[in-house]
Specification:
- By secondary structure, the chain is an alpha+beta fold.
- It has a domain of 105 residues.
- Helices cover 37% and strands 10% of the residues.
- A hairpin with a 5-residue loop joins β4 and β5.
């Protein structure tokens, strides 16, 4: 009797077919995971930023008269990432203390769908230019990438 030294062509083909079938089943399961992860990141970033806007409002005279980015000379990014005083202007000192608040965010996060961290400010609807959109009239903060992500 002869000693076998390897696999036959049929055995190799069967293994390849089985692996192909498994790959065809498993790969579609992971293709949507990237989109779901981006959406989860977007929702988390929006929750964080919106809660920090609420904290800003609570520390700066409540209400729409002192929303971040509505004080002359202070844009949304500076209002959220730098120290401010109760009136909403930038603080002279860079340390929290009596009447000095913030920063509320270390930096503006990148929108996970377009990798842009800029904030477009305005009073109309988002322009879908990328990044984020901040409505200076209402204080609403949304994604500014396309209509499918602005509703979160």
């Amino acid at each position: 009797m002869r000693k076998r030294n390897g696999f036959t062509l049929v055995e190799i083909l069967i293994v390849v077919i089985i692996l192909s079938i498994l790959a065809a089943i498993v790969i579609p399961q992971f293709s949507g995971a990237s989109e779901e992860a981006k959406l989860a990141s977007l929702v988390s970033d929006l929750q964080t930023i919106r809660s920090q806007i609420q904290l800003y409002k609570a520390q700066h005279n409540h209400g729409t008269t002192c929303l971040p980015g509505t004080v002359s000379g202070v844009d949304f990014e500076n209002a959220m990432t730098k120290y401010t005083v109760k009136a909403g202007t930038l603080a002279a000192t860079q340390a929290p203390g009596d009447g000095v608040y913030g920063p509320y965010l270390l930096k503006i996060p990148r929108n996970p769908f377009d990798d842009v961290n800029s904030v477009v400010e305005g009073t109309s609807t988002p322009d879908e230019a990328g990044g984020w959109y901040y409505n200076t009239d209402t204080g609403a903060f949304n994604a500014n990438d396309d209509a499918t992500h602005t509703g979160y």
